Amino acid sequence: MVVSLKESDFFSKNRRALAKWISAVEDRLPEGLEFLQRHYHRVGHAFRIGITGPPGGGKSTLINALLRVFRARYPEETIAVVAVDPSSHLSGGALLGDRIRMDAIGLDEGIFMRSMASRGSLGGVSEATADICDLLDIYGFDRIFIETVGIGQLELDIISLAHTNLLVLSPECGDEIQAIKSGIVELVDIFVVNKADRQGAGRMVNDLEYMLGLRVYSGEDWRPAVVSCVATGGSGEGADGVFELVEKVESHRSWLQARGRWGRKNRRNLERKLRQNLFHYLQREFDFLQPLLEQKAEEVEKKRLSFSEALEILLEEFSRQFSSSLKKRKGG
43-259 — its CATH code? Predict the structure, then answer.
C-alpha cells in the first residue's frame, strides 16, 4: 500500500502525518531518509532523556509519573516518548504495543507516544531509533523520552541518543548491581531506585552510593545522583521521590548548558552515531564474504594457508567488493 507523505502536513503539526513519516523512516524508505537529510539543520532543540534498566524495574510506570509532573510544571512544552520493545520474530513488530499502561498520555495533546521494535539490535535500540528522535526533534518536541527494552544490562546504544541517562533499578534487581561494569557507571547520569517502599531499597541506595564513592570526580565532572522513588505513588504532591528526580534531571540539563557540555555531548553523540552506523553498514557489506570466509577457515584448519594469508585474501576481496558497492551507491 502506497502511503501519501506530505511535508506540509508534517510541518502543520498533523500527528497522523508525523506517524506516517516515522513509519517511512523506521522502514528505511528513501522518502523518509531524504526528508531527514533535507531538514537535519533543524535538529538540536529537544532535550533527550534516556531511561533503561533490567526488567521489573518499573521504567514505563516511572515515565508515566514523570510525564505527569513535567506536563504540570511546563504545560507549554510538548513531549514525545519512544519506547523500544522486543521484536516479534515473525513480524518484526513491537510486542508491547503502545504501552497502554502509560495512562498519563491519554488524551493529552502535548504528549506523543511511539513504540518501536528492537529488531534484534544487540544494544536494545533499533538502528532507526536515532533517526526517529531526530524526526521528532525536527517536528518541534521539547523533550524526548527514550525507553529501551530491559534486558538486564545498560543499553549502550541509548548513550548515543540522550543528553541525560537514567538507569532504573528496583530492590528485586539487587544482583544487577554486581553486574554493572565500571565502564558503564560513568555513562549513567542518574541512578533511580524505584519501588523504594519495598524491602532492600535502602541497601540498594547505599550500595550504589558506595560504588560511586570509589570513583574520583574532579570539580569539572558531574557526579551521578542516586534517587529513590515510588513511581506508583501518584502524580500529585505525594508522589514519593518523583519530584526530586525531576529536579535532578533539570539540574543535569542546567549543568550541561552552564559548563559548555551540551554542545560537546551533542558532538560526541554524533560521533557515536556515525561510528555505529558505519559499523552496521560495514557489517552488512561483509555478509557476502561468508562463503569465502568459511572456505579460508577450512584451508587454515587443514594447514593449506596460514592465518595471516587467509586474512589478507579476505581483506583484499572485501576491499574490492566494497569499492564496487560504493560506485553503485554513487551511481557510477
Answer: 3.40.50.300
CB atoms within 10 A of CB 332: 7
Task: Identify the residue with better confidence: 268 or 177.
Answer: 268
- Residues 106-141 have pLDDT tens digits of 678 899 999 887 665 554 456 688 899 999 999 999
Q: Which helix (H) or strand (E) element contains residue 201?
A: helix 201-213
HSE-up of residue 158 (Cα within 13 Å, Cβ side): 29
Instruction: Name the 3-class secondary structure at 193.
Output: strand
Taken in order 43, 190, 66, 60, the sign of the CA dihedral is: positive
Domain with CATH 3.40.50.300 in the chain: 43-259
CA-based end-to-end distance of the chain: 31
* Packed helices 59-73 and 242-258: angle between N→C axes, nearest 10 degrees: 70
Q: What's the one-letter identity of residue 115?
A: S
Q: Which residue has the higher pLDDT, 113 or 54?
A: 113
Q: Where is pLDDT greater, at 182 or 238?
A: 182
